[in-house]
Every structure is written in C-alpha cells, then in structure tokens.
Task: inverse folding
C-alpha cells in the first residue's frame, strides 16, 4: 500500500491532482476538507464543532481530524493506496498520523508539496468561490487569513517529512496536465 500526502496552500490544486492520481493509479483519495464540509452540510455534531473555526479561516481542531483519519485508515487497509489531501496540517497531526499508520504497518511514502505563488492562489480561490458558492472561498480577507494560518501552523509539517526523507516540492504553475506529469513522475519513482 502506498500513502501519498498532497501538500500546499489552499487553492494550489491538491483536489484536482488527487482526482487524477486516483484515476490513474487506482488509489483512494481522502480530502479532510470535503469530509468536514459534508458533516457541516448534514448538521452533524462534528460539523457543528468545526463550522465556526472554518468560517474564521482557522483549521479544524486536531483531535477531531485525527479521529476521522484513524477511522479512515483502519477501514481502508486493503486499499491499493491512499492520497491524503489536506492532512496532516499541523505538526501534532503529522506525529499522530505517523503513529496511526505505524499501528497499521504503514507509513507516509511521499509528501508532494505543490508550490504556487500566493497571488495566484488568491485568484484561483476567488474564482472557485464564484463557481462553487463556497462561502469560505468568496472573501479575500478570509482567504488571506487561511493562508496566514497555513504559513504559521501547516508549513512546519513539510519540515517533519523532509527530516524523514519523504518530502518533495514541485512547481504547481502551468496547466493541470503539466503539474500532473510532474507528480506522476514522482509516484512512478516509488515503484508503483
């Protein structure tokens, strides 16, 4: 089983690239953001617990997300592989994730950081907000707050996986196909 973490600022293209990876390699895709948004839409206890944080541009509480991922890993042990999109986002999440995977005889095989300039990301997210109607993508102020939180809390996760020798950054500019070709070359190098 191969485990890939897609990493990068909100709006860098993680979800788009994860869908392409899933189609090409037959590996599962888990987007913590989408799982959380689904809980919010359904009005579950989890959804209510994280909705206010998300509306302020903050990250969902670690304990909630870690619990969700632990359940996901345990229920997908027979999968060919998993792409984790939007997780881990903090150093405590990364350490907990490593423990969860190790308990299941697994590890993060590669973290791929999709690097995109901030102004391009803001432009992409505002466009996505117009198309999707997502409130958290419609306000430039909220978007910039999300980017500030990312840089303060999430960027250190890259250092964690770099120290393990499992981190690679790629250029996230260009067409979707160009970015996918860069990512595919890395995945192919894992010996799929």
Result:
């Amino acid at each position: 089983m191969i485990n890939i973490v897609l990493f990068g600022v909100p709006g860098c293209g993680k979800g788009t690239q994860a869908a392409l990876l899933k189609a090409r390699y037959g590996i599962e895709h888990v987007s913590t953001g989408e799982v959380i948004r689904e809980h919010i839409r359904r009005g579950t206890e989890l959804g209510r617990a994280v909705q206010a944080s998300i509306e302020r541009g903050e990250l969902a509480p670690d304990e909630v997300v870690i619990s969700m991922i632990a359940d996901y890993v345990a229920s997908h042990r027979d999968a060919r592989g998993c792409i984790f999109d939007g997780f881990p986002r903090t150093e405590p999440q990364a350490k907990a994730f490593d423990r969860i995977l190790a308990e299941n005889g697994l590890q993060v095989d590669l973290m791929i950081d999709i690097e995109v300039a901030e102004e391009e990301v803001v432009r992409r997210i505002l466009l996505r907000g117009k198309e999707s109607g997502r409130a958290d993508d419609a306000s430039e102020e909220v978007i910039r707050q999300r980017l500030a939180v990312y840089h303060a809390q999430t960027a250190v996760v890259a250092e964690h996986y770099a120290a393990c020798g499992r981190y690679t950054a790629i250029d996230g500019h260009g067409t979707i196909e160009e970015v996918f070709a860069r990512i595919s070359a890395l995945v192919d190098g894992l010996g799929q």
Notes: The mean pLDDT is 89. The CA atoms of residues 17 and 180 lie 6 Å apart.
